[in-house]
Write a structure and sequence with these properties.
Elements (H helix, E strand, L loop, with lengths): L4 E6 L5 H15 L2 E10 L14 H27 L6 E9 L3 H9 L4 E5 L10 H11 L4 E4 L11 E6 L3 H9 L1 H4 L4 E7 L13 H8 L5 E6 L6 H11 L4 E5 L5 H7 L2 H8 L4 E4 L1
């Protein structure tokens, strides 16, 4: 399905220009409308309990007044960035939310879009709301997300793309949802790390996915590689570096979010360390 509505949820003023500049690039390329939601977030968990000890109604009111001011600041910055762009339609809205209820607010808007563009949720100085915001879009909004590293030299019209393929449902969903981008790429590498020797596709790992993509006009190569580094995510990033890839497509949270948060996983590691855009779907 083509991307005709692109969604951005912004809660950090320092990431507005970077995120929206690239989201605008994507909207122009695909003839899409860009919807922006600017959020002021009550990050203190105490605000969730209006009758909690030491939390008065006046304190809560002051906190949410600050949230409205934050949302207005982000909205103003977003309009300034988009006002310098052309070649596509856009709209801005703003709102406030408690950290505990953030997912509901974001998912209600995200589910009417085809794709979200978001900043990386982990990193020094970033707020605690960015990770649940990303998860809300992937799990509750049920749309894919293009997650941007905070580096200047990236493109959302990649010429070389890596697909992280493990024959799982999340990986297949990501490849399907990424078709508008993959069809524009010069070369797409389906990277399979240590395929199972007794699996149903052991004689042709990645073959059925490649056949599917080729029938959609995608130029595909299959790269079967060994796990020569401690993490599969490291292997994927090394392969992306070797072929000078501009983006990685992968399924998100093949394990539960709790397991990823406690024990780590490919999704969490990539969201912390990837130096290039990640196209993710769950």
């Amino acid at each position: 399905m083509p991307w005709k509505t692109i969604f951005c949820a912004l809660s950090d003023a320092s990431r507005v220009e970077h995120t929206l500049t690239h989201a605008a690039e994507l909207a122009r390329l695909h003839g899409a409308h860009l919807d922006v939601l600017s959020l002021g977030v009550a990050r203190d968990p105490a605000t969730h309990y209006f009758s909690g000890a030491g939390v008065s109604a006046v304190m809560v009111q002051n906190i949410f007044e600050g949230c409205h001011e934050e949302a207005a600041e982000i909205d103003s910055a977003a309009r300034a960035v988009l006002g310098r762009q052309d070649g596509f339609f856009w709209s801005c809205d703003k709102g406030v939310a408690q950290l505990a209820d953030l997912g509901h607010h974001v998912a209600d808007r995200a589910r009417f879009a085809d794709l979200a563009v978001l900043p990386m949720p982990y990193g020094e100085g970033l707020g605690p709301e960015l990770a649940p915001l990303t998860e809300a879009i992937l799990f509750d909004g049920r749309i894919p997300a293009m997650v941007l590293p905070n580096t200047p030299d990236i493109t959302l019209d990649p010429k070389r793309v890596v697909i992280a393929w493990n024959d799982g449902q999340e990986a297949l969903r990501a490849a399907r949802d990424a078709l508008p981008m993959l069809q524009r790429a010069e070369r797409v590498h389906v990277v399979v790390v240590d395929p199972p020797v007794h699996g149903p596709n052991r004689s042709d790992p990645g073959g059925l996915l490649s056949q599917f993509l080729v029938r959609h006009g995608v130029a595909v190569e299959i790269d079967v590689v060994s796990k020569t580094l401690p993490r599969i995510a490291d292997v994927l990033l090394r392969r992306a570096q070797d072929i000078d890839a501009d983006a990685v497509v992968m399924g998100a949270y093949g394990h539960s979010r709790v397991r990823e948060a406690v024990f780590g996983g490919a999704t969490r590691y990539m969201l912390e360390h990837a130096p290039l855009p990640l196209f993710m779907a769950h």
